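Data availability (excerpt). All sequences and predicted token strings are deposited with the supplementary files. A representative entry, CDP-diacylglycerol--glycerol-3-phosphate 3-phosphatidyltransferase, is shown inline so that the format can be inspected without opening the archive.
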Amino acid sequence: MKLKPPFQMNVPMALTWARIAMIPLVIGIFYLPERWLSAYWVNSIAAIVFVVASVTDALDGFLARRYEGWATPMGAFLDPVADKLLVSAALVALVGLGRCDMAIAMIIIGREITVSALREWMAKIGESGLVKVNWYGKIKTIAQMTAITCLLWYDPVFGINIAVIGEVLILIAAVLTIYSMYVYLRAAVPFFNKHGGL
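Structure token line:
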């Protein structure tokens, strides 16, 4: 009997894998020797790669919903993993560059781990609908992705201080991160009690 492939490759899956492949580029570009690329081009390329990777996130989700058969279990698993890896890698790079406070990075990364674990547990008890993405989470994501892009770019554009914009937005994202996590946890607390978790 012939073995079936472990996952079905389609356009959304290809975009997800491409996003994962871009992660080392976002970090690796900063390790290139200064004689190869100026700091301006390093920042620009890192920011552009991050934006392209972020766009593939929205695009693969749209295509998976739009075309029948393109939404696969493997894609549903891999898509959020790719997102979290991309954001985490970018934040780690920004902390190393001194452009993002370590506490803020830990808040954002810690929230992603916590909410992922919470969603997995809620799915096991059949209540995953209570921890679906809310508006706070969506606004947090927009602020977070814009902030990371600004902090990767870092250089002024037409006299506009992109670095300061990024610093303000990452603070907003951190606050929204905490609040959105609180909303998810508050929805889950009754089920912790019900199932003997507290």
